[in-house]
Amino acid sequence: MEITLSDNAQHWRDVAGTFAHEELIPFEVEAELNNGVIAPDRRARQQRLALELGFGRMDVPKAYGGLALGMTEQVAVWEQLGRVTNGLCWCFSEPQQWMFEACSSEQVQRYVVPLMRGERKDCYAITESEPGSQEVINTTATRSPGGYRISGEKWYVTSGNFADFMWLQAKLESGESALFFVDMNSTGIEIVRTPLFSHTFAAHHPIYRLTDVFVPDQNRIGADGAGMQYMRSWFRHERMMIAARCCGAAARLIEEAQAFARTRMIEGEPLSSRQAIQFMLADSVTELWAARLMTYEAAAAHDQGADLKSQHARCSVVKLYASEMANRVADRAVQIFGGRGYMRENAAERFFRELRVDRIWEGTSEIQRMIIAGCLEKRGLSGM
Q1: 282-336: pLDDT as tens digits
Q2: Three-class SS of residue 73?
Q3: Which of 22, 37, 147, 151 could form a Cys-Cys staple with 216, CB 3.0–4.6 A?
Q4: How many angstroms separate the CA atoms of 227 and 249, rounded?
Q5: Does one domain contain both 249 and 299?
Q6: Under 8 Å CB-to-CB from 7, ≥6 apart: which residues?
C-alpha cells in the first residue's frame, strides 16, 4: 500500500527511514528509562548525522545553502521520523521558508542560518495560560527608546531548555500581534516551572515569565500587523508534519502489533487468527491508508501552489484526521499486546502516551473542526 512518489521523494523517504531505524529506534528504551536522555556521544552522533544528511536544510531556500525541498519530500521524511518514540527525532533544528520571507537579511544571518548549521537552537513562545488555540495573546510589547519592553507569561515553550533564543509573539499597544527574537539570556526572563508531561522527552516545555524584557528594534520580525500571517505559515507547516509523523507512528504500530499477533499462541493457534484481532488490524490499516492519501494530497497541493486559504483548510483536515487516527491505532495496538502493551519498554505503550498531544498542540482537534467548518461556510465544498 505504497503512495506513488517521485524519485526524489522516495530517496528522502529511504534516507530518513534508514536514519530512524539504524540511529534512533535502537536507543528508545534507553531514553525511556533515563528521562528522555541517552548517552551524550550517541546524541552527538545523531545530531551530526542529521545535519550531514540535510534534514536541517529541507525547507531552506537554495540561496542560503538550503535544499528547498517540496512539501511532499518533507512529508516523506517526517513520516519516517514519526516512527520513532521519545522525541529522539528532534535532533536538529528546522528553519522554515517563511522565516526567510519574514526576517531581515541581518536577522536571517544572525538567527536563522545558524539554526540550519546546528550552531543555534530556538523555541517558540506563543501559547499562554488562556486558551492558546484561540490566539489569546496577553503578553505586551511596549515601545521604549531603541526597542520594546516585553512583559507576560508563556506556556509550553517546547525545547526551551535547549534553546538560546525564542520566537515570541506579543501584543503591541495598537492591539496588533507582532513577532520578536528574544535571546534566552536577556535580563527579566525567568522560568516559572517546568511541568512534567506524559511523554519521556529530553526536550522540556517550561513556563517562562518575562518582566520588562528589553528587545531592540532590530529584533522585531516583519511588518506591522504581520505577526499572525507568519504564525499561520508556521501552523500550516507544523500541522502537515504532525500528520506525517502520525502516519509513520501508526504504520510502526500496525507492523509491530501484527508481528506479535502472528507469534502469540492461544490454544495452539496464533492470535492473528482471531477475528477480533483481524478486525482491529483491518480498521487500523484502512484508517492509515486514508490518512496517508490525504496527507500526501495536501502536500502535493502545496507544491502546486494551491490557494493559501485552501491550503490552510487542507492542513487542518489532515492534522485532525491523522492525529485522531493514530490515537485509535495506538489504543488497538496496546489491546492486541495485552499486558505487554502496558510495559514502557513496548513502543505501543510509549506511542499511546506520546500521540495524545498531537490532538492538542498546534491547534486542538476542536479548533481544526472550527477552521474546516468556517472554510466550508465561506467557500463551499468545491472551494476548499
Answers
A1: 999 999 999 999 999 999 999 999 999 999 999 999 999 999 999 999 999 999 9
A2: helix
A3: 147
A4: 33
A5: yes
A6: none
